[in-house]
Amino acid sequence: MRFEFAYDKLLIATGGAAIRPDLVGFNLPGVVVLKSLADGRKIKQLLKENRVRKAIIIGMGYIALEMCESLVGLNIGVDMVKPNPVFLPWLEPSMSQAVRDELKAKGVGVHAGHTVEGIDQTAGGLQVNCGELTLRADMVLVGIGVAPCSQIAENAGLRLSTNNSIAVDHKLQTSEAHIYAAGDCADAYHVVTGEKTWIPLALRANRAGWAVADNVCGKEARLDGIAGTAVFRVFDFEVARTGLSMPEARKAGFDPVHNMIQSQSRAHSYHGGRPIWVNMIGDKKSGRLLGVQMVGKEGVAHRINGPAVALHNRMTVRDYSQMDLAYAPPFGPTWDPTLTAANQLMKKL
């Protein structure tokens, strides 16, 4: 059915959709994606109505890893598979290995470097075919990311951007001044590179919606951009990042140098502290802070916000090393792990 509405200002907020490959078997019963509330309800119903003893997760991103923990918590065996041989490519290799080891310790099969060719229905359930590797399960969760729902913008002749997201300026205006776009369907500026990027995260989507509302109502609002700050939990580990990884920094034209340190979540004299690993990246030419990744079992989730603020303010590694950060023994050592990381990185710059 076709509808037509006149407008003065228009907002496109069509979000993103879970990617479901156009391969054999991906529409079989028991093969599910997770993006919406309806998807979550479908998974719960599937678990309720069937004896699911084994699940395969295709993908190893944020949602895939969080779902892995949830399924293991229900005493469901889990195998994970993806084509990229590197487990978490944006994370420093030894830190990535620590997270991978945690998955293996929980009985999770991690099969990186295997391309899924299709899914078959068998008498015993579902079979995921990956060339030389064959995995069998009662349920398959496809968690390979999302794509921007930009078709309406493309049909209207609006300019598209990276990953086919809708191109917007700092005021969220599209290539047509009276049309705005916000949320996972739209791109953003990266505060480190100054270039367009598409990183679908909740805070940016929410903030963009508020900014569009202000602009439509005559109150000018501009968004500087994003640093890609994100955190997730997988079993006992908190994993966080902000800014650029080493490969991303090289691709952006920087001369990146990194240094990884191990510190503690609490003062050494205070009981209960857990190790924290911090990998900090800086530009050798300018000394500018480019990115930080952190892994640990305590104190990671909110500690990443300090470097994120530094990135938004274009600080150098030396600038960050002079930050006056809070200290109390239950919450960290005298030298916050991120300050230790900055001090050590400066020796390489």
List the helices and strands and how they pair.
Elements: E1 10-12, E2 16-18, E3 31-33, H1 37-49, E4 54-58, H2 62-73, E5 77-82, H3 93-105, E6 109-112, E7 118-122, E8 125-130, E9 133-137, E10 139-142, E11 146-148, H4 151-155, E12 179-181, E13 188-189, E14 196-197, H5 202-216, E15 230-234, E16 237-243, H6 246-251, E17 256-264, E18 275-283, E19 289-296, H7 305-312, H8 317-321, H9 337-346
Parallel strand pairs: 1-12, 3-10, 4-5, 4-10, 5-6
Antiparallel strand pairs: 2-11, 7-8, 8-9, 13-14, 15-16, 16-19, 17-18, 18-19
Please give a structural write-up.
The protein is of the alpha/beta class and 349 residues long. It is 25% helix and 26% strand. It is built from nine helices and 19 strands. Strands 3-10-4-5-6 form a five-stranded parallel beta sheet, with helices on one face. A five-stranded antiparallel beta sheet has the order 15-16-19-18-17, sandwiched between helices.
Work out the helicity level: 10-25%
How many helices in DSSP terms? Answer: 9
CATH topology of the largest domain: FAD/NAD(P)-binding domain
CATH architecture heading of the largest domain: 3-Layer(bba) Sandwich
Backbone CA Rg = 22 Å
| Mean pLDDT over all positions | 96
Helix-strand topology string: EEEHEHEHEEEEEEHEEEHEEHEEEHHH
CATH class assignment of the largest domain: Alpha Beta
Instruction: Kindly report the name of the CATH homologous superfamily of the largest domain.
Output: FAD/NAD(P)-binding domain
Report the biggest beta sheet as strand number plus sense, adding barrel if it closes: 5 strands, parallel
Number of E-state strands: 19
What global shape is seen?
Answer: globular
Beta-strand percentage? 25-35%
Query: Distance between the terminal alpha carbons, to the nearest Å?
Result: 61 Å
